[in-house]
């Protein structure tokens, strides 16, 4: 691309007139800055991070001057408001959504309260986000770069040097896995202490950058202004920036950014400068910009885009290390087999069998039994029981160590000894499937099958995510293109998906029963995905979108990377789950001691027994299930002595189909709205009792006891 204009300004008279009319008033900066703005490319995970930071308590905000609705919410544990803006590719775009993302920093209502910018990047496409970071750096606002979906990048053989990227950009850089909630607390802490960027010239070790589209001289570093700028643009642009810097007082936004946006004829920045300097100054500046654009031989927007993307590519080459595509012909051929119906189905069956052997047999039986017998039963329980006897209060002793309702036996020990080993192995297995590139291939394989339930192959991802976490799976339904697909996927996830912690306890319970019980439980669960999905497809109006998905190269997983990621996810899960286990155990203990449990069992127990054929103790199992699914399942394992095998099967099915934990319920209503959320919730609860009752009476009629 040719350099825009020449080295002399064709608007000297306009410039001289402007200098004589300069306004020196300063903006009011007395208002305390407490707010933040989330920015980033489309599909980078901005909204998921927003939901985590605000605890899904958000609302749409109408901001004067912006026609697009912006979501805002109170930041839990930090204070202030955070704004979730539409995805953006460039601050120089004329697209309405993208204008809203850049102009929110210029609107009077928000600009005087904004403390900093949170830029969310997709780790798989980091170069695009680096370009955005360079553009917003010109605003002169404190900024944090969050590289999201780092696990997906790792599964594609992409590694990012976070420390080096932070040094180059002069800002804090962190990583997250938003759908799992990993890294959110660290991000929250960084926001609390957000600092202005340590601006320094880019590529100061050289004076030219060769590029086929931008003249190398245009990217020279201005040695005289290294503390104020990163780039030196063409001479004409630099002269215009210098003019704006002299005329516009230093305020919330850097004059360099104001000058660049003026050159692109941004109406919001014109209004911003008019408020600072008055109508005369902005009118003259508009005249200068008009003369400049008329004199230029090519688009200023394209010139700036090329400049930033070229620089982003150079930075990306320094901080991103990509694993070269595998040359193993068998691995590539195997990847093709996974997508073909004749070979893909047998492969999927084999993968499922291996998953069951690893997670169900090794983790849920051998590993759990070994840990419980060696660590808990022989060491911890006798040790703690001995020292708890010194506590004078019988009530406190029972709260701590009571085998039926004590915090340690029903809370801590079950979480660490039963859930943790299985969920760690589950994350290892899931990581292998993800790291190898198998999950996108099974999406292709099941595209035609999912068509019957109103979804395309992309729907496999949130459905599979449901086996990890219902809450996160509901959030990932955003990747689906139509409202019909989102509603169907949310209904199926809410109804049929046993999350990873629940699966962990289910496998422990089922392992001690005949294999027919396992086939019955999971066979009914999986069959309902297609039965309920088929019916939902017929009832819910709308259309199914086309299936387009990026397919990474099939590769051999890196064991150490998979183990580290599994450990990270397991640690994050246990950090959240153990307190819930403890609180649930305390609540049930106090409820039981106050006589509440006996009263509920007295009035609802017979109803549960008549409809589902379950013992009255199931009430406390269901109460814990509503708090957190795996807590209820762990309680079922704790009380299994009171159940027959048939009752265990029925209870496991009801626990799977009944409404998931409170977090999932909140997210369902937030994502799908009050009306649709209420319909899904009501349908699921009724369905759970119907399927449990049908299974119970059918098995009794045919004499099936799973003994």
Q: What does it look like?
A:
With 707 residues, the protein is of the alpha/beta class. It folds into three domains: 1-29 and 200-320, no CATH class; 31-198, Rossmann fold; 335-701, no CATH class. The chain has helices spanning 12-20, 46-54, 96-103, 108-111, 126-137, 150-155, 162-169, 184-192, 235-247, 255-263, 267-277, 279-295, 300-319, 329-337, 341-388, 394-401, 407-436, 438-445, 447-451, 460-465, 470-476, 483-496, 500-511, 515-539, 559-593, 596-612, 618-627, 629-638, 645-657, 662-701; strands at residues 35-40, 58-61, 70-74, 81-84, 114-122, 143-148, 158-160, 172-176, 320-322. The strands form two sheets. Strands 2-3-4-1-5-6-8 form a seven-stranded mixed sheet, sandwiched between helices. Strand 3 (70-74) and strand 4 (81-84) form a beta hairpin. It starts with 11 loop residues before the first helix and ends in a 6-residue tail after the last helix.
Distance between the termini: 78 Å
Shape: elongated
Q: What does the radius of gyration come to?
A: 30 Å
Which bin fits the share of residues in helices?
Answer: 55-70%
**Which whole number gives the mean pLDDT?**
79
Question: What is the count of helical runs?
Answer: 30
Residue stretches low in confidence (pLDDT < 50, at least 5 long) are 1-30, 204-228
Structural class: alpha/beta
The number of domains is 3
Number of strands: 9
Largest sheet: 7 strands, mixed
Strand content: 5-15%
Please state how the strands of the largest beta sheet are arranged side by side.
Answer: 2-3-4-1-5-6-8
């Amino acid at each position: 691309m040719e350099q825009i204009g020449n080295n002399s300004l064709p608007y000297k008279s306009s410039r001289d007139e402007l200098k004589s009319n300069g306004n020196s008033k300063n903006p009011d900066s007395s208002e305390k800055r407490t707010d933040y703005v989330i920015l980033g490319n489309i599909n980078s995970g901005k909204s998921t991070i927003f939901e985590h930071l605000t605890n899904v308590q958000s609302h749409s905000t109408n901001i004067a001057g912006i026609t697009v609705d912006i979501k805002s919410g109170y930041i839990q544990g930090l204070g202030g408001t955070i704004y979730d803006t539409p995805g953006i590719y460039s601050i120089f775009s004329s697209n309405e959504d993208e204008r809203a993302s850049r102009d929110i920093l210029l609107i009077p209502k928000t600009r005087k309260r904004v403390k900093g910018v949170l830029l969310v990047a997709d780790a798989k496409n980091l170069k695009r986000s680096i370009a955005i970071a360079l553009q917003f750096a010109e605003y002169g606002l404190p900024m944090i770069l969050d590289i999201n979906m780092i696990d997906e990048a790792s599964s594609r053989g992409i590694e990012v040097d976070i420390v080096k990227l932070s040094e180059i950009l002069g800002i804090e850089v962190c990583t997250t896995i938003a759908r799992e909630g990993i890294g959110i607390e660290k991000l929250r802490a960084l926001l609390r202490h957000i600092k202005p960027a340590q601006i320094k010239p880019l590529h100061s070790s050289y004076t030219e950058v060769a590029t086929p589209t931008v003249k190398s001289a245009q990217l020279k570093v201005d040695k005289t202004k290294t503390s104020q700028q990163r780039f030196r643009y063409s001479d004409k642009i630099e002269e215009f920036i210098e003019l704006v810097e002299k005329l516009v007082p230093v305020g919330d936004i850097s004059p360099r950014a104001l000058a660049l946006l003026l050159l692109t004829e941004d109406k919001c920045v014109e209004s911003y400068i008019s408020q600072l300097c008055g109508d005369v100054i902005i009118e003259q500046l508009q005249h200068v910009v008009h003369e400049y654009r008329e004199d230029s031989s090519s688009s200023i927007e394209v010139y700036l885009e090329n400049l930033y993307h070229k620089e982003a590519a150079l930075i990306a080459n320094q901080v991103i290390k990509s694993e070269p595509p595998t040359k193993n012909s068998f691995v590539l051929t195997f990847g093709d087999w996974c997508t073909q119906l004749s070979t893909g189905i047998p492969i999927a069956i084999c993968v499922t069998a291996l998953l069951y052997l690893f997670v169900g047999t090794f983790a849920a039986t051998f590993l759990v039994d070994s840990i419980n017998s060696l660590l808990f039963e022989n060491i911890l329980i006798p040790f703690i029981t001995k020292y708890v006897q010194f506590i004078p209060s019988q009530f406190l002793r029972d709260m701590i160590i009571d085998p039926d309702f004590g915090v340690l036996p029903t809370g801590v020990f079950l979480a660490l000894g039963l859930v943790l080993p299985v969920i760690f192995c589950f994350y290892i297995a899931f990581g292998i499937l993800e790291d190898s590139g198998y999950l996108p291939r099974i999406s292709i394989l099941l595209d035609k099958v999912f068509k019957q339930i109103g979804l395309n192959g992309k729907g496999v991802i949130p459905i599979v995510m449901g086996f990890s976490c219902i809450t996160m799976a509901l959030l990932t339904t955003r990747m689906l293109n139509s409202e019909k697909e989102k509603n169907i996927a949310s209904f199926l996830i809410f109804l049929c998906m046993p999350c990873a912690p629940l699966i962990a306890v289910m496998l422990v319970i089922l392992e001690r029963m005949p294999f027919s019980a396992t086939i019955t439980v999971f066979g009914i669960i999986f069959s309902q995905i297609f039965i309920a999905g088929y019916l939902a497809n017929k009832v819910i109006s709308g259309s199914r979108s086309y299936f387009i998905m990026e397919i990474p190269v099939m590769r051999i997983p890196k064991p150490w990377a998979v183990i580290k990621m599994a450990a990270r996810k397991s640690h994050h899960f246990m950090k959240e789950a153990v307190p819930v286990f403890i609180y649930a155990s305390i609540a049930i203990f106090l409820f039981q001691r106050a006589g509440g449990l006996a009263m509920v069992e007295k009035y609802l127990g017979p109803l549960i027994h008549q409809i589902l054929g379950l013992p009255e103790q199931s009430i406390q199992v269901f109460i814990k299930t509503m708090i957190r699914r795996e807590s209820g399942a762990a309680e079922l394992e704790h009380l299994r002595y009171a159940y027959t095998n048939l009752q265990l099967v029925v209870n496991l099915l009801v626990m799977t189909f009944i409404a998931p934990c409170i977090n999932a319920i909140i997210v369902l209503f937030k994502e799908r709205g009050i009306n649709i959320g209420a319909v899904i919730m009501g349908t699921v609860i009724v369905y759970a009792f119907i399927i449990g009752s049908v299974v119970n009476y059918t098995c009794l009629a045919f004499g099936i006891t799973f003994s």
